[in-house]
Design goal:
- By secondary structure, this protein is mostly helical.
- The protein has a single domain, classed as Glycosyltransferase, CATH 1.50.10.
- Helix content is 44%, strand content 5%.
- It has 17 helices and 7 strands.
- Strands 1-2-3 form a 3-stranded antiparallel sheet. It has a two-stranded antiparallel sheet with strand order 4-5.
- A hairpin with a 2-residue loop joins strand 6 and strand 7.
- Belongs to the glycosyl hydrolase 9 (cellulase E) family.
Length: 452
């Protein structure tokens, strides 16, 4: 029952962090329009999209990842979403609408960010009151960004699959743009930042382009570039800035469901990733808290929990489609049921089955975080306090010990530390800040369990 109820509450976060209300039935009534002139100073329309966390900046890479994972959730588990399917598709469309603008506003250019994070982080103000610089950042052939461009292509391609039957013309537009953006990413190679992300982590784009278009040239691309781009390297996390594990699980589907023998390699790599998470496996190397939570890092750890849970469930589904499908862990094997059980333990922990009896989804359960690191939630809403609250005046709310006046229903926060400890403290952003890229994979996991 917990999971079924939760599935009904998950999407308001994603809709509520949008920079404009998606529809008149917006469920977070304390939010209002914001960012309505984004891009205007650069003569482009960049209105829309998501603020990815508790600030007021639109970052293209995590936004594209969020959209990809939302779409992947619908593709894999949409049949389990029942009356929430349209809400999930609305959330995907809100992301793809913005990414279409970012990719097509200026030929040969992809807009990848709106807002200056340094200026933004010197303010604590509602998005409706923003007066910080809405600087626009872009990549081009002269200043390439293969990482963000390829993830954008993946999001658009995944979205095209979501809308293939319900809105064919929109689906085709998404696919056409995805192909163009991937070609841009591949032709002009280079990372857009000083991060370690490289093009090799974005096989998601050609894989999804293949699925969406049926064009086998992308399969050939994967086969010919796999080793060169690091496909033979194993990594043991999956996040918005490192896609390798997720990409290999997705590629393994080609072998498990479609018997593409060339992709059996990716099944082996996926097994390595999965086995690293399984306690007792010969290749086990994950860390868990005393209460049983997967623990990867001190900052926003639940992003790794929700992504790994989603991959466990997606891989379990793929294994079940293959006769005798199991994950090989050295001399032992792991069944799909064991993957599902591990994912369920993580999902239940997030929803309150943990030593603190704390639900880390805001608004769900009897006990949940009250002081989340989120500007709009922590400040009086424009409906309760119509007068503007300036950049500096908002800090009194950041430092207040009072609970947030606006409940960001559905938001999953960064989560507890490696000893299951959680500081319900607005200033502890590592634990108390929600993010769309934490929530997006959780949508698919909750949909899966709502049918169990």
């Amino acid at each position: 029952m917990r999971l079924r109820q939760c599935a009904r509450e998950i999407n308001p976060l994603l809709r509520g962090t949008a920079v404009r209300e998606i529809a008149p039935d917006q469920r977070l009534k304390w939010r209002a329009d914001s960012g309505l002139s984004d891009g205007a100073g650069y003569h482009v329309d960049l209105v829309g999209g998501y603020y990815d966390a508790g600030d007021n900046v639109k970052f293209g890479l995590p936004m594209a990842f969020t959209t990809t994972l939302l779409a992947w959730s619908v593709i894999e588990f949409g049949s389990s979403m029942r009356n929430q399917l349209e809400n999930a598709k609305d959330a995907v469309r809100w992301g793809t609408d913005y990414l279409l603008k970012a990719a097509t506003a200026t030929p040969g250019t992809l807009y990848i960010q709106v807002g200056d994070p340094n200026n933004d982080h010197h303010c604590w103000e509602r998005p409706e009151d923003m007066d910080t610089a809405r600087s626009v950042y872009k990549v081009s052939s002269q200043n390439p960004g293969s990482d963000v461009a390829a993830e954008t292509a993946a999001a658009l391609a995944a979205g095209s699959i979501v809308f293939k039957d319900s809105d064919p013309s929109y689906s085709q537009k998404l696919l056409k743009t995805a192909i163009e953006v991937f070609d841009f990413a591949d032709r002009y190679r280079g990372a857009y930042s000083d991060s370690l992300v490289q093009l090799c982590v974005h096989f998601t784009a050609p894989t999804l382009d293949t699925i969406a278009s049926g064009d086998n040239s992308y399969m050939a691309y994967i086969q010919s570039n796999g080793q060169t781009l690091g496909a033979d390297e194993d990594d043991y996390s999956f996040s918005w800035d490192d896609k390798r594990a997720g990409t290999k699980v997705l590629l393994s589907q080609g072998f498990l469901e479609n018997n593409i023998q060339e992709f059996q390699l990716y099944k082996a790599h996926s097994d390595n990733y999965i086995c690293s998470l399984i306690p007792g496996s010969p290749s086990f190397q994950a860390q868990y808290t005393p209460g049983g939570l997967f623990y990867k890092g001190s900052e926003s750890n639940l992003q790794y929990v929700t992504t790994s849970s989603f991959l466990l469930l997606a891989y379990a589904k793929y294994l079940r489609s293959h006769e005798g499908g199991v994950a090989s862990c050295g001399t032992s094997t792991v069944t799909s049921d064991k993957l599902v059980a591990l994912a369920k333990k993580q999902v239940d922990y997030i929803l309150g089955d943990n030593p603190a009896k704390m639900s880390y989804m805001v608004g769900f359960g009897q006990k949940y975080p009250q002081r989340i690191h989120h500007r709009g939630s922590s400040l009086p809403s424009v409906r309760a306090h119509p007068a503007r609250i300036s950049c500096g005046d908002g800090f009194q709310y950041l430092y207040s010990a009072s609970p947030n006046p606006n409940v960001l229903v559905g938001a999953v926060v960064g989560g507890p530390d490696n000893r299951d400890g959680f500081a319900d403290d607005r200033n502890n952003y590592q634990q108390s800040e929600p993010a769309t890229y934490i929530n997006a994979p959780f949508v698919g996991a909750l949909a899966f369990f709502s049918d169990e």
